[in-house]
Structures are given as C-alpha cells and as structure tokens.
Amino acid sequence: MKTYFIQNFDGSDICIVDNGNMEAEKTLLFLHGSNLNSDIFKHQFESPLLNKYRLVAINLPGNGKSGKAHSPEEVYTFKGLVRTVDHCLRQLDLTESIFVVGHSLGAHLITNNTDSPNMVAGAFLIGYPPLHELADFMRATIPIPSFGKIFTESLTEDDIAEVANDLINENHGEVDIKEMIRSIDPVFRRVYGSSIAEGVLCDEYETLQRFRNPVMLAHAGNDRFLRYEYFETANVPNLWESKVHVLEGASHLPFIDAAEATNALINQYVSQVV
C-alpha cells in the first residue's frame, strides 16, 4: 500500500491511498464521509477478500493527510467537493468502468456528478439516502444533537466525543474516530454545512437510474443518523437485487465495526457486476 499526493483544481494537495494492484481487472474507489478520512477503510485495504482488486481512496480536501484548501470558500462547498472528486478521477485516469464505494457524503459526491454514469461501472453506497431534493434530506435524517455539530466549525473535546460516539458502535477496535474529527480543517465543517442550504446539484434518482449496472444500496441497522423508514418508502430506482441491503447491528461506520460483513457484501456485488 502506498500514499501519494495529487493537486486539486485549486492547487492544494490531495492525499491518495492506493494498494498498487495495477494488474487487477477491477478498481474500487473509496470515498469517505464528512469529518472522516480514508483511515475508515483500513479493514478493506487489509482484507484478503478484497486485495484481488485495485483499491484507491481519496482523502477530501482538509481531511486526513490532504492539505487545507487554498480557496476554502469555493473548494469546501458541496459543489466544490463534487468538482474535487471529478478532478481527482481524471488526474488518476480513473474515468472508465470503476466501482465506487461511497460512504455518506462520499456517496452524494458521486450521485451529484452527472458524468458519473459514464465513468462508473457500479456503486456500493452506504450511510447514504438518495435525494430528489433537499427536503428529502430532512426526511431521511434523525435530528440527534450531535448531527448539527458535524457542520459546526469549532468543536470542544466533549463535542468531538459526542459525535464520535454516535458515528460508531462502542466496541470499534483501533481506528481513532475522535482524532479524525479533531484533525479536520474546521473551516470545512462550516463551509460545507452552509452550502447544503443551496440544495443538491441534481436529482440523485435520475443519476442512479442512468448507471449502466444496478447500484448496491446498503443501510447499517444501528445507524443513529438515518431513518430506515425513509429507504422503505423511497422507491429508489436501479437497485441491485431490487432491494436495500441491511447490515444488522452496524453503525454509521460499518467499514469498521462490521468490516467482515461489509467486505463480503462489497465483494459479492463487485464480483457479480460486469
């Protein structure tokens, strides 16, 4: 596994994690959620089940080892983050037949890019409610106190602990979620949070419908931020096996606290989609 940097459209550094399996027939691109970084995919990059694929993870600007944006008021907006992912895919020459593993915000960044169906062979999306419009976001989410703090610039240590505790089940192993939240450029939270009020860039249902292969949509059974009832009534199009797959007992971060089951589901999907 190697780590390297490419330049974002504003000239700032974006950290890429790559298992270097250039001979693999299929490439999986991992995109993390807000206030996190590529370390949440530690158990996927170390998985014997998934090492037959090329695995690549992008750290969003201001997150993980990626540099702070040179133009934060532009780059950290929802529109700027969609542009960032698109820019990185082109820099990495990953614009044909890739499989995206999108978590939360990372999933939205793919489904709000109208070019995604031309680049992506398949998508495994979790911690993610597909949206027609911004109002759907409010219907899909659970307004627990820590939710608003995800979009707040300055957080106390108590705030960080509260967010971390709601993101993941208590027994989550060695991945330090609090340090991920602590290390983010705090401006990211404010700018991204404010930009959400502008709404989604497109109808995500239309993007999903245009994918040439069905999309794997999964829900973590113990996700404290998302309502499962939303998925039951959403009538999301173009789903693999025509249903939402549920990882029972998993938190909003199933890549960590339900790694074995998550890896098996990813592999099952990717291996069966051409």
Which labels suit this protein?
8-stranded mixed beta sheet, alpha/beta, 14 helices, 274 residues, globular, 16% strand
Report on the structure:
- This protein starts with a strand and ends with a helix.
- By secondary structure, it is an alpha/beta fold.
- Helix 12 links the parallel strand 7 and strand 8.
- It has 14 helices and eight strands.
- The chain has an eight-stranded mixed sheet with strand order 1-2-4-3-5-6-7-8, with helices on both faces.
- The longest helix has 14 residues.
- 39% of the residues lie in helices and 16% in strands.
Q: TL;DR of this structure?
A:
The chain has 274 residues and is of the alpha/beta class. The protein has helices spanning 42-45, 72-75, 78-91, 105-111, 116-119, 134-140, 145-149, 157-167, 177-183, 186-196, 204-210, 228-234, 254-257, 259-272; strands spanning 2-7, 13-18, 27-31, 54-58, 98-103, 120-126, 216-220, 245-247. 39% of the residues lie in helices and 16% in strands.
Number of strands: 8
Name the strands of the widest sheet in spatial order: 1-2-4-3-5-6-7-8
| Radius of gyration from CA coordinates | 17 Å
Percent of residues in helices: 25-40%
Order of helices and strands: EEEHEHHEHHEHHHHHHEHEHH
The first-to-last residue Cα distance is 26 Å
Number of helices: 14
Q: What characteristic shape results from the CA principal axes?
A: globular
Helix/strand/pairing category: alpha/beta
Q: What proportion strand?
A: 15-25%
- Characterize the main sheet: 8 strands, mixed
Mean pLDDT: 95
Stretches where pLDDT falls below 50 for ≥5 residues? none
